[in-house]
């Protein structure tokens, strides 16, 4: 992949990273606001626990996304971006365009998903 294309993906990833960092803050602020209202109205502790759980789950999902993006940016720095970490073949640019954090080419991704028992994609 030429340097110009790599730079294109670096920008995509940087933008994604910014967007997800913003998400984490927004989601947590919203959930905290909600629980504040509930607490003053009815002091419903179980509901507060539910909200905490939601915050935690959102945080976990976003943290994983951010970690994936971080790793992709690191691969760009190391010059291994766009290369399947499993078989060493190039990942198609079409695939990277759809998912710049992809670590595997389509073939390896399918194999790994088959090994892992076809987990459904995350719904969040
Ligand atoms: Zn591969």
Commentary on this structure:
With 124 residues, the chain is mainly alpha-helical. It has one domain (3-115): Four Helix Bundle (Hemerythrin (Met), subunit A) (Up-down Bundle). The chain has four helices and no strands. The two termini are 32 Å apart. 11% of the residues are buried. It binds zinc ion.
Please render the helix and strand layout as text.
Layout: H1 3-42, H2 45-78, H3 93-98, H4 106-115
Helix pairs in contact: 1-2
The structure holds zinc ion.
Zinc ion binds at residues 84, 86-87, 89, 104-105, 107-108.
Give the termini separation. 32 Å
What gross morphology would you assign?
A: elongated
Q: What is the CATH class name?
A: Mainly Alpha
Number of helices: 4
Structural class: mainly alpha
β-sheet strand percentage: under 5%
Helical content stands at: over 70%
Provide the CATH architecture. Up-down Bundle
> Which parts are unreliable, with pLDDT below 50 for 5 consecutive residues or more?
none
Small-molecule binders here are: zinc ion
- Give the domain tally: 1
Question: What's the CATH topology name?
Answer: Four Helix Bundle (Hemerythrin (Met), subunit A)
Radius of gyration: 19 Å
Tell me the major beta sheet. none
């Amino acid at each position: 992949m030429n340097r110009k294309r790599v730079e294109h993906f670096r920008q995509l990833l940087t933008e994604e990273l910014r967007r997800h960092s913003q998400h984490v803050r927004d989601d947590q602020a919203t959930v905290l606001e909600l629980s504040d209202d509930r607490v003053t109205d009815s002091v419903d502790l179980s509901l507060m626990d539910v909200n905490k759980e939601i915050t935690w789950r959102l945080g976990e999902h976003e943290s994983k996304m951010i970690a994936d993006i971080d790793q992709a940016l690191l691969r760009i720095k190391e010059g291994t971006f766009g290369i399947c970490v499993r078989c060493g073949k190039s990942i198609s640019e079409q695939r990277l365009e759809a998912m710049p954090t992809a670590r595997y080419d389509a073939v390896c991704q399918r194999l790994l998903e088959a090994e892992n028992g076809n987990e459904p994609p995350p719904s969040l």
